[in-house]
Amino acid sequence: MTKRSIGPRTLLYPHPDLIIGTYDASGRPDAMAAAWGGICSSRPPSVAVSVQKARQTYANLVEQREFTISIPSTDYVREADYFGIVSGRDEDKFAATNLTPVKSDLVNAPYVGEFPVVLECRLLQTVEIGVHTQFIGEILDVKVEESVLGEDGKPDIEKLRPFAYDSMRQEYYGFGKVLAKAFSAGKEFKK
Q1: In a domain, 2, yes or no
Q2: Number of domains the chain contains
Q3: Are the CB atoms for 88 and 97 separated by under 8 Å?
Q4: Is the pLDDT of residue 191 over 90?
Q5: Where is the Flavin reductase like domain (predicted)?
Q6: What is the mean pLDDT of residues 40-56?
Q7: What is the rounded distance in angstroms from the CA atom of residue 188 to the CA atom of residue 51?
Q8: What is the dihedral of CA 157, 160, 164, 170, to 10 degrees?
Q9: Residue 39 within any structural domain of the chain
Q10: Mean local confidence (pLDDT), 144-169
């Protein structure tokens, strides 16, 4: 099959929609939408998010060295989008969206009370990458609303209803049905 070059782009499918929660120097809660992020280590469990130096969240991360990541459901796509289009320097994003900043039990950072999943993280290291700095945080705990847990006690993606970001089209997408069981579907090719 023929493929057409579209040049170097920030293209990856899907991009997660992660909401980074931090406090500023005066203790005011802030939240920023970030699509440049994901799990980066199993041991210790760690997540990486990339933030530009011009962002308020960058300054907060450098100063506080702790943060949360809240995962919104599709019910909150407008609020999550808002967190990515205004600066915490100019707006109180929690007040504007009527969402609740909840102080983490384990780190000095807020999370979004209405979002069903939160990761509480302590900064392990930073990596300078072009116009972004990658902040790598150890996940100290994951808190999940009871309502999105399955009978097995694990988060159920159909109840959670997260969404993904398409950086090329600048659109958000939901998830569909289960396609196959991981670490099982490909076994037919094993020799």
Answers
A1: no
A2: 1
A3: no
A4: no
A5: 10-165
A6: 97
A7: 41
A8: 150
A9: yes
A10: 96
Mean pLDDT over 62-89 rounds to 97
Instruction: Say how far residue 139 (Cα) sits from the centre of its chain.
Output: 12
Residue 140: inside a domain? yes
Residue 8 is assigned to a structural domain of this protein:
no
Helix spans in 52-162 (H): 56-64, 77-85, 93-97, 157-160
> Domain range holding 158?
15-189
Task: Transcribe 109-129 into DSSP letters.
Answer: -EEETTSSEEEEEEEEEEEEE
**Burial readout 109-144 (b: 16 or more C-beta within 10 A, e: otherwise):** bbbbebbbbbbbbbbbebeeeeebbbbbbbbbeebb
Residue 150 sits in a domain of what CATH number? 2.30.110.10
Residue where the block lists tokens 């939160």:
118
Phi, psi of 56 (to 5 degrees): -60, -40
| pLDDT surpassing 90 at residue 119 | yes
pTM of the model as a whole: 0.95
Supply 147's token pair: 């309502």
Q: Strands, DSSP E only, in the chain?
A: 15-16, 18-23, 29-34, 37-41, 46-52, 66-71, 101-103, 110-112, 117-129, 132-144, 164-166, 171-173
Tokens at 115, concatenated: 């979002």
Structural tokens at position 15: 């991009």
Query: Which amino acid appears at position 45 of this protein?
Result: P
